[in-house]
Amino acid sequence: MKSSSLFDLETPCVIVDHGKLIENIKFMQNIANENSVFLRPHIKAHKCLRMAKIQIEEGAIGVTASKTDEAIVFIEGGIKSITVAYPIINKDKLDRLLISAIKNNTDIRMVVDSIEGITNISTVSNKYGVQIPVFVKIDVGLHRCGLSENNPVLIDLVNIIYDDRNISFAGLFSHAGHAYASNNADDIRLIASEECNVLLHLRKKIQNKGRNIAEVSVGATPTALVSNTYSGITEIRPGNYVFFDMTSVHKGLIGAERVALSVLATVISKNDSYYIIDAGSKTLSSDMGAHGTVGSGTYGQAYKLGDYENTSVSMPIIKLSEEHGFVQRNKTNLKIGDKVRILPNHSCPVANLTEYLFIIDNYMVLDKWRVDARGRVL
Ligand SMILES: Cc1ncc(COP(=O)(O)O)c(C=O)c1O
Question: Of 28, 36, 95, 148, which sits most exposed with the smallest number of CB within 10 A?
Answer without folding.
Answer: 36
